[in-house]
Structure formats: C-alpha cells, structure tokens
Write a structure and sequence with these properties.
The structure holds two protein chains of two kinds.
Chain A lengths: L13 E4 H14 L5 E7 L2 E9 L3 H7 L12 E2 L2 H13 L3 E10 L7 H7 L10 E8 L2 E10 L6 E4 L1 E4 L2
Chain B lengths: L2 E4 L13 E4 L2 E2 H11 L1 H7 E2 L2 E2 L3 E5 L2 E2 L9 E2 L4 E6 L2 E2 L2
Parallel strand pairs in B: 1-9
Antiparallel strand pairs in B: 1-2, 3-8, 4-5, 6-7, 6-9
Helix pairs in contact in B: 1-2
The chains are: A alpha/beta, B alpha+beta.
Amino acid sequence: MRGRIEVDAQQPPIPVPTAVLNEVFAHAREAEPEECCGLITGADDAPYRHVVRCRNDMTLWHQRDPAAHPRDGRDGFYMNELDYLRAEDEAAARGERVTCVYHSHVEAGAYFSEMDQDFAGQPLFPFPDAHHLVVSVVGGKVVDQAIFRRDEQSGRFVGRLVAHGRS
Amino acid sequence: MTVTVRVPAALRALAGGRSELAAPAGRLRDVLDAVGRESPALLERVVDAGALRRHVNVFVNDEDVRFRELLDTPVRDGDRVTIVPAIGGGW
C-alpha cells in the first residue's frame, strides 16, 4: 500500500491567484455532495490563469455499471473526456497549456489519495507535468486545499500548501 | 478516403511526433491495427489482449465506443477517431 500523500508543511507554499482559487472553491461548493473536477490553464509567466470546469461523469458510470464502477461522484471523479479535450484545444488557441488539474474531496481532507495517484501516475496521463489542486469540502464549505506535483528528482508526488496570490 | 486518428500528446513520441494519423475505414480494431503497423508501440499502449487498456478510451467522432461496440465499432470514411486517456481520482 502506498497510502495517501499529505502536504509537506516544511515546503514553501505555492501562490495561486485569489480569483482563480475562488472560482475553484465556488465549483466545489456547487458540486457538493459530489466531487467537482476541472482544469486550470496558463503559461510560464502565469501558470494559473483560467479555470475550466469539466463534468464529473463518475455517477453516470456508476449508474451504468455499478460492479465495474463501485464509486459514484460523492467519493470519486471521472473527468468528461470531451470537456477536457475541448479545454485543451481552447487553451492552445490562447497560447496556453493545461498547468493544473483540480478536483474536490467531499467530507474528506485535501490529500492525494491512492486513486488520485493511480490516475495521475499512469503512463498515458495527458498532462504529466501538471500540478494537482485538491480542495476539501466539509459541511458544504471549503476548509482546506493543497497542491500535489511531481518532485523532479524522485519522480514522486509531493504535497504543498497553497498561498493566496495576486488576482 | 480514410479516417483520421487523433493521437494524445502523451503518445505523440510513439507516432513520430504526429498529432494525427490516417488509416483506412473499417471496424475500430482494424483502424487501430493499421495504426499499429505504422507505430507498434502506440498500439501497445492503447490495446492489450484484444481489449482497450484500463484508463484509455476511444471516441469515434463524439461517440464513446464504450456505449457502442467497443473495438467492433464501425468507423466510416471521414470519421475522426480520438484516443483519450482517462483523468480521474477520488478520496
């Protein structure tokens, strides 16, 4: 068992514009009791620029085949493929790229779960260099957030605190 | 007439850097086999033991082949096949 990855509070926080965080938080609150998911696009000079909401199809998959997909949207997310392909194309048209994948955990903490690691670590993951922003929603409110990204040397995901930056 | 196969960024190195490939129409498995003759490593990442790999999906135009006939889904001249790695997770 690899176990979940928690934030390393010894590492400096990663600044994210407040306006971007607020958009993600609003999505997380609206999606509750289900998890939300989406992408953040940007460029080297401003990696967190645009928030693109994507549909979470996990409940759809669960309803179609509960045996193959035992989770539903309350404890998992499956990003709608057409939504993310469109977001990727639109980002490229703006001269941007996908820099971050975000999702929420409902009634759970802002950690990087084994399931999160399974998807993000697969060889075909479409955005291997992207950060992963995880937002914790408890009682309908966003109570915590963290960013997970690969350590260049070890290749492992490490968790960092998030700091509100300039909008 | 052929079909266009859109290659995801993560697999383009296995397709000579190309974002799109051409293949003859047929069943989806025929289209992917044709891609595999040109880029065997690419096919290997998409299909395993005669089925789509876990965490990989394919669309024909805007239709998810999981709701059609999987690798037996017909692909007609002019159709667009898109290989799409999955993004997911959960607590």
